[in-house]
Amino acid sequence: MTTHADVLIVGAGHGGAQAAIGLRQRKFTGSIAIVGEEPEIPYERPPLSKDYLAGDKPFERILIRPPGFWDEREVAMLTGRRVVSVDPSAHVVTTEDGGTIGYGKLIWATGGHARRLSCAGHDLAGVHSVRSRADVDRMMGELATTTHVCVIGGGYIGLEAAAVLTKLGKHVTVLEALDRVLARVAGKPLSRFYEAEHRAHGVDLRLNTVVECIEEQDGRASGVRLAGGEIVPCQMVIVGIGIIPAIAPLDAAGARGGNGVAIDEHGRTSLPDIFAIGDCALHANPYADGMPIRLESVQNANDLATAVARQIVGDPEPYHSVPWFWSNQYDLRLQTVGLSTGHDQAIVRGDIASRSFSIVYLKAGVVVALDCVNAVKDYVQGRALVVGRVAADPARLADASVPLKSLPETAISPA
Ligand code: FAD
Question: CA 107, 109, 110, 112 torsion: positive or negative?
Fold first, then answer.
């Protein structure tokens, strides 16, 4: 039974797994333990709304590493245990079952919990989040008796689930409160493109739509009542309205932060010997003009984990990676690089109707991000424009016959 670890990692997800891998790759010889509240060893979360939900990939194929890997690397995997408090001065965490584990360094890698609806019926059977394997297994277990699904929230996860369920022959309604899907993460042309795609695939996509409550029949969700009184009948409701960072124990221990645990460029929190990484970490990102943000992506979790591993082994390198992300919907592969938040110009490159195009985002004349739909070349070549903060001619950016790599690298300032 593990009672102490030189490095204790809380959270057996993407960041937690990568932190342990990164430490061993850098020849860290001390003891490492990972405590995770889920029963599974670390697995990839992105397939949960894609191939796993579609039934195209079994669970074994979405494990981050095969089961034997952790034993071979002497990483103690303490699954099914939730950390409920942290004592920074004693260097001890307490788990829900009352057990305690001491640590030399603590890496907080807990991600977030799915935000739930607050209206009546939010906790009925048939209402689902898409955050964990258990969530998706529950959902899949109900698919045989489901013909109609309501997805609440037009973000990436909701739209990916809508695409998979449509392909599985379900009647899907997407309810979005704002005037476009993906409003938080993408520019208008991309939102309009995805709205049209979903509608073309038969999704009943409704914008500016406010949910009032979930209707019940025989103890189960039977529909979604909208403001105005209309009821959209369904047997399954999927709620994709974001996450709440899982930071309560660190918060209670006095860590600085707000919408996440505040960290510096080496992943250090304001508490001694405690680091935070991944979805729960609030960091000043150079691609957001140094503003404190939380990123919810595999790239961010992995790269921050590596930065912390390096810091712990005494080979520090600050976390300045360019953010990137992907989303699969139908036969569309979206790849994004950079952060488009705050852009003042969105240039469409190529023909949207061809379903292979990119959107280049500029801020004060400088390329800050790209969204590439079925356009791998643009994604690969456009990365340098974002990293180099290149000021490129909008007319040439819009011309898909001009390769992005040929654009002059007139860097405005280093990122
Ligand atoms: P997680 O991977 O969420 O791991 C955190 C772990 O900590 C969880 O297992 C959690 O149960 C556990 N935990 C929480 N609190 C405690 C506690 N107190 N004690 C013990 N354990 C605890 N990103 C992309 O880049 N591309 C995609 O296409 C993409 N698709 C996604 C699709 C879905 C359905 C989801 C849910 C996410 C997707 N993401 C995608 C986001 C990506 O998965 C996350 O950004 C990434 O998992 C973050 O890693 P993390 O280590 O911070 O948190």
Answer: positive
Q: How far is the CA of 403 from the centre of ligand 1 (A)?
A: 35
Summary mean pLDDT of the chain: 96
What value does the mean pLDDT take over residues 323-344? 96
Ligand 1: which residue has its CA nearest to atom 31?
46
Between CA 306 and CA 312 the distance in angstroms is 10
* pLDDT (average), residues 409-414: 48
Taking the centre of ligand 1 as the mean of its atom positions, its distance from the CA of residue 413, in whole angstroms, is 33
pLDDT tens by residue, 254-269? 999 999 999 999 999 9
Examine the pLDDT at 273 and tell me if it is beyond 70. yes
Q: Please list every protein residue whose CB sits less than 6 Å from any atom of ligand 1.
A: 10-16, 35-38, 45-46, 48-49, 82-83, 109-111, 130-131, 157, 246, 278-280, 296-299, 301, 325-327
Please give the C-alpha separations between residue 301 and each of 13, 14, 34, 253, 283, in angstroms, as whole numbers.
Answer: 9, 6, 15, 23, 12
Residue 408 is predicted with a pLDDT of 66
Q: Enumerate the H helices of 38-187 as residue ranges.
A: 51-54, 67-72, 133-142, 156-167
Closest-CA residue, ligand 1 atom 18, reads: 83
**Looking at this protein, which amino acid is placed at residue 124?**
L
Rounded to whole angstroms, what are the CA distances from 367 to 57, 320, 363, 415?
Answer: 37, 17, 7, 12
């047997």: which residue's tokens?
A: 235
Helix (H, G, I), strand (E, B) or coil at 243: strand
Q: Show the tokens assigned to 324.
A: 């990137």
pLDDT at 1: 76
Q: Is the pLDDT of residue 233 over 70?
A: yes
